[in-house]
Design brief:
There is one protein chain. The chain has 5 helices and 7 strands, in the order αβαββαβαβαββ. The protein is α/β, with parallel strands linked by helices. Helix 1 packs parallel to helix 2 and helix 4 runs parallel beside helix 5. The radius of gyration is 15 Å and the shape is globular.
């Protein structure tokens, strides 16, 4: 189901262009990475990270590591390569903490991951780049939305058709990274 969500979002918003450089956070089991690799083609690059193992996917470099590990952002940046040429065009985050069953706790945990992903995206995106991130409705996603609006030309909530209508899950989509200036912390 996750792969369909990304495909539907990309069909509508055209994030994954041929030759793009993509970072996929929370990549396991690999559906988003597979869609990204197919759509960007052999001239592009997908770097995926997850705390869980992931089966090999053609055209995807995988790092098994917790994104909240203090070394993770720099290791991903090193995988991107030269700091000038190695900027990402798209940062995807389908990360989710293990559910506790307590709605407010689950919301706060996924928002902590979303905020960390947003900070990373603002560090690695090339000007004009895009960021998409899973969040749960629950109130605090508005603060992240406001922060992203300062650094991106357009920011919106997206709920792809493959998402269950009764699910609190939705995605924040930020396009047109302004880059250049020092991004404010989330």
């Amino acid at each position: 189901r996750a792969a369909y969500k990304l495909a539907e979002i990309d069909d509508k918003f055209h994030l994954l262009k041929p030759g793009a450089r993509v970072v996929d956070l929370g990549a396991a089991p690999g559906g988003w990475s597979e869609i990204a690799a197919q759509r960007i083609g052999p001239g592009g690059r997908v770097i995926a990270l997850d705390v869980l193992d992931m089966k090999p996917v053609a055209g995807v470099e995988f790092l098994q590591l917790d994104f909240l590990d203090p070394t993770a952002p720099d290791r991903l940046k090193d995988m991107l390569g030269d700091r000038k040429q190695g900027k990402a065009d798209v940062v995807l985050s389908d990360m989710a903490a293990n559910a506790t069953g307590h709605r407010q706790t689950d919301h706060l945990r996924i928002m902590a991951l979303a905020e960390a992903a947003a900070l990373f995206a603002r560090e690695v995106l090339a000007p004009g780049g895009s960021f998409i991130c899973k969040v749960l409705q629950g109130g605090t996603e508005a603060a992240l939305l406001a922060e992203l609006k300062r650094d991106f030309a357009t920011v919106k909530h997206v709920k792809p058709p493959a998402s269950r209508t009764d699910s609190a899950e939705l995605y924040l989509l930020a396009k047109g990274f302004r880059g250049g200036s020092k991004a404010a912390p989330v």
